[in-house]
What we know:
The structure is a homodimer of 380-residue chains. Chain A is of the alpha/beta class and 380 residues long. Chain A has two domains: 3-185 and 293-375, Rossmann fold (3-Layer(aba) Sandwich), CATH 3.40.50; 189-287, Rna Polymerase Sigma Factor, Chain: A (Orthogonal Bundle), CATH 1.10.1740.110. Helices cover 33% and strands 17% of the residues of chain A. In chain A, the strands form four sheets. Chain A has an eight-stranded mixed sheet, with helices on both faces. Chain A has a two-stranded antiparallel sheet with strand order 2-3. The first copy, chain A, is globular, with a radius of gyration of 21 Å.
Amino acid sequence: xxxxxxxxxxxxxxxxxxxxxxxxxxxxxxxxxxxxxxxxxxxxxxxxxxxxxxxxxxxxxxxxxxxxxxxxxxxxxxxxxxxxxxxxxxxxxxxxxxxxxxxxxxxxxxxxxxxxxxxxxxxxxxxxxxxxxxxxxxxxxxxxxxxxxxxxxxxxxxxxxxxxxxxxxxxxxxxxxxxxxxxxxxxxxxxxxxxxxxxxxxxxxxxxxxxxxxxxxxxxxxxxxxxxxxxxxxxxxxxxxxxxxxxxxxxxxxxxxxxxxxxxxxxxxxxxxxxxxxxxxxxxxxxxxxxxxxxxxxxxxxxxxxxxxxxxxxxxxxxxxxxxxxxxxxxxxxxxxxxxxxxxxxxxxxxxxxxxxxxxxxxxxxxxxxxxxxxxxxxx
Amino acid sequence: xxxxxxxxxxxxxxxxxxxxxxxxxxxxxxxxxxxxxxxxxxxxxxxxxxxxxxxxxxxxxxxxxxxxxxxxxxxxxxxxxxxxxxxxxxxxxxxxxxxxxxxxxxxxxxxxxxxxxxxxxxxxxxxxxxxxxxxxxxxxxxxxxxxxxxxxxxxxxxxxxxxxxxxxxxxxxxxxxxxxxxxxxxxxxxxxxxxxxxxxxxxxxxxxxxxxxxxxxxxxxxxxxxxxxxxxxxxxxxxxxxxxxxxxxxxxxxxxxxxxxxxxxxxxxxxxxxxxxxxxxxxxxxxxxxxxxxxxxxxxxxxxxxxxxxxxxxxxxxxxxxxxxxxxxxxxxxxxxxxxxxxxxxxxxxxxxxxxxxxxxxxxxxxxxxxxxxxxxxxx
Lengths: 380, 380
């Protein structure tokens, strides 16, 4: 039995914003009731001052670490980072991870039943922002009775949520760790997301988002969307190392359109695997929220009054959110008087690097969290 | 009337490889008859020593410069480079440009009628290589009675054809100008092409390539494929300059899935425009040929015995075929004793830079061609 399975977790659900007290979204629309799926690890201290909120990236879920059952072989998505004795040490910290609003892993999203109609929302689900996702997480944190989080930690689109937390609820955040992220999408990042969305919407099984009660789902379109994403998550160098021009069959070129190169076969596999676990409409909503995110929109809101310690981390081969975008973020935070540590970590693994084993990342995060944990009573 | 329309051209057709003398492809398959659409500009000298073959990129055609009629407002795709007094000066050189084998602009390709069946080839068309395209061009050059080309010039996938010319028919090439190209695709380039192909094949109107005699074509899939390509043709920087995060409507975020950002609207426009002029199966065949291309496969064939002058040009912001790949090419050519000039041109415009006005590129090409033209009798 692998070691990870000693760490049992369970998915829990928190429902709020029952009408007429709906969640008011940044678009002005109202949404309710809202359910948030979440998991926790470790023990909340009596002072409730050891809580760390981990926020997931585009297609993640609440299952950050541990196992659902003792013989569950599939650990959480950040098992390498979260657990007893790890960088985010569950023997010391109380870790919360929630599926984002708009997702499809237990939290309310476009695939959820709209109680007003008895049918799935589909595209009648309102468009969300990163700020809306964070508002739903805040409701959960309130529900858990936590007045101030020791830290909010997340990579990629999770990093955007970290930033939105700091801007919207600065008094509730002691420390923030945005990893491999950006204060706003470049035109190129928007372009990749838009093409991925177009691939989904081009699938006739998408039916304007109204496919849940039909036989077929837009699996082919969603698989293409995922493949586009995958290219941007890996670096040129990591692809070269992983696949190069290796052919699937040992001998020569196949001269047909089947996957001939290893990299083709890898992408097809990733695309097909993804459609089993992810909802196409959620992909549309979450990518759109990421495209909409612009830290400037939240700037006036409060950051300048906050006392938050930041650890900003970028990775050398991340070409989706290149280091320069993290540097822009660091300059912005410093201009606003924040306490900021910044590190660019050497890695060949592209944007995905924050999800992979990296001693430097682990020791940075562990030391940073130890410091803020130590200092928590001083500024308490 | 614009100046370009003084330069009238017409599309011509050359048919060869009539059965039983079919063209034998690198796969071992036989194809015939083969028609090649081509255009010429300038006058072939009595000695036939002033001919320059321009080869086009992935989705180009034979219409390199000039106009079909005096009131034709749409000039050729390399009008800025080819014409009277231009870098490739049609007052001095005889310029030939042919649509590639496998294309859909007049040359035999998957959309052509298979004379054996009376129906379009579709996927019964044999898979091609860059070498096969060049073999068809060689038949045309032979037909025009030209024993040795003054130069072969082309960018991107055209650059691969330039290299294949030098490797397969070194005695027929005096000078070669491969621009913004690579000796072989990286895993990342293969990955982009594969996802584009998957987008086409995911379109139910593709019908396994057998859509020509049906009502609908796989337009949505082809548009997505083109959008993916477009992202790789532009640089991050050029996208930032062109679009940034500009919104289509003057006011705020639209909160729906229509094209909200300018870059989204641009990509949709490019995708939709492309399907009017291009055949989806040709896109599959031509991208596959590009993925298959590996200069090493032709290496033993003859380059080392050749006396060819090379001008290799890369562009700083080309991330599809980065400068390092041109450097690899230059090292390879020098190791084989070739006369090589290499220049990396500063440009923000990404891979597309070779198609855009650039004084440096124009003067380099003009000077290089003048030199080989001057030296032609010395080594003739």
